[in-house]
Amino acid sequence: MSKVTKEMLAQKAHFEALDYEHHCVVPQGGVKQFVFDRDILFNAIWDYNISPDGHHYFSRCAEGNFPQCVWFYEYFPETNTVKKLFELDKVITTYPRAIVASKIHSCISFMPDGKLIMATHTTACSKDHPIWMPEAYYTHLWEGYPGSNIITYDPKTGKVEDYGIPVVHESIYGGMYDPIGNAFYFTTLLRGHIYRFDLDDRSVHDYGQLTDGGSCRHIIGCDGNLYTSSNNGELLKFNTRTKEFEGIVAQIPVAAHLKHEHNCHVCMFAVNGPDKKIYYVPRANDLLGVYDPFTGDFEMTESLTPEDLKKYPWYGTPYGFDFDDDGVMWYALMMKPNNGHPRSAGGEVGFYLCSWDYFNGGKPVNHGLVGTPERRVHVFCDGWVRNNVFYGADTNHHLDPVSIFQIDLKKLVEEEKNGVKGPVCADPYHAYRFDNGIDVYPGDLCADMERYIELDKKTYEHDHPYDVLRNERLHTFNEVYVTKPWKIVGFEESQVYDIKINADSSTTFVCGGNGHFHRFTVLKGEILNMEKNIEFTPMDKDALAKEYEHLRLPTYIGRRWVSKVTAAVEWNNGRKIIGTKDSMMAIIDGDKVFSLGAMCCTGPVHALATNADKTLLFGVAGDPDDQGILFTYDDDHGVRAINFLRETDIRPIVGESGLMDEPYVIDVSPDGRHVVLGGRDYKGLVFEYFGLEVHE
Fold this sequence. Notes:
Strand content: 35-45%
Radius of gyration: 27 Å
Number of helices: 8
Shape: globular
Oligomer: single chain
């Protein structure tokens, strides 16, 4: 007798009942699917691309709590088979204690000589860690992630060439080869910078923090230039001939009807259309952005969601799409619950294969769930059409092995014309999510779900304790607001030099660059006043350092030459607290120096501020090439780091998202519960934190 009961399945069902037809996969006459054996915990594919000469390449990846380096493959559509080409740790040097390079993500590109160029990425742990901890071990010299390698693979010889790590301690999240400049452009996961790696002289150019982190998709337009995006949906253009960033050329509007997270307007997929325009889709929107690189015109399409799917409280996003030989757009629409719906905790609903005869005024058509009856496609990152066959990679189907699938679109259309219907989905991982899943499932769902429920239990028991501990916050804020002066004064003049909380809780800050300075007053992200081109003299850090140069300040061994004061603030009982260029903190009492140790492993302490009683201090620190941090000090608890200033760590954010790698100025309200920060990233920002909560 099964250990799983109907009552247990009812508790696990995330969604209301589906119509029977929406539980059915596409007609199967032209469908092929290769599913790997369940040998090791490779549960992901996040890069799959087809070369100009028709060869299919993908990376087989580990995610989460299994320290496994990525393996690379070729897929052969004619025989529906695969061949392993290399195992990463056998072709490049890896360090055994480090977080492993478990993935190649959204970056497989093809060079004129036939070689493939790509970069490694990480979503798996070190062998010394229980689960993936990229932030927790970001600063750990031995167990952290050393950085992503850029590599090339030569299909003719089978040789891999390692170009090394262009940016230390960062993970390359996406990239694209530029044939005009023989360069590789890439974006990074944590700091959100965009870089250009020159393959001729191996130099690296940093364009700055332009993406707000987590942006992976790049495309070379029909004009030869490179385009990528930010988390807020800004389409960014890089001129591959001049090697310059040319600015934001389009903006995906926020989908007001979607109650989704604020940072999900990043471009998830993009292709060049038959009309030579760029078609791209944001992560949380069922509309396509269409950008003409030759005229600069931008528009949004109508909804990609077919009418029969609009009856449900969902939204759709195509994670991959392409045009067939007749110019018809084909895409697999990932249906997800609209956040805020009472039953939205279950993730995605499924992928439905859709077509849209866009250029001839057609409407989106739903053809059924993608996959075979036994294995409904769960998620895929890339979808391509070649010779009227739709190709994609199936990933993250729990801890199941990954798969590659193909759908002959001509056969599919022919079957549908002949009235052929696809069979009901017999994948238990699909059926258990719905209230009527057990009723439509063509088997014993209780018995077939035993393995998944056991996996859920084991994963929870293993991961949950570490997730709780690593995400524990001693300090949280009730609200966070982001102000973006760069939208008004431009990138080069948006760096923040001074900041002050006013009596009415508004914030006044000064930003500038190129010898120009501007003063803004804001409240909860709304600009109340603005003065351009004001007179302003930035703080003289050299003068501050001279004030304390007679003292023996704390230092790392052998680095006294950078033991210079970079920030100072009055403290209680007539004392002062200082921070140094080398990240050290100290209490100054007359000529006595009491070391508080290092606040971070690299870089200066940039600014300090206290409450009215001078009993609670907040500060910001970090190297310009590092992730900036926010920290506190009080006499009872000492120095405490709050967090990196990544978007995912400063929720609940209101409005647009932001990422501050270089926090330089700070102020605190008299009661210590309202904190404001200003950054000197290329995209200068101001964060307003309201409602400090301390959790002892």
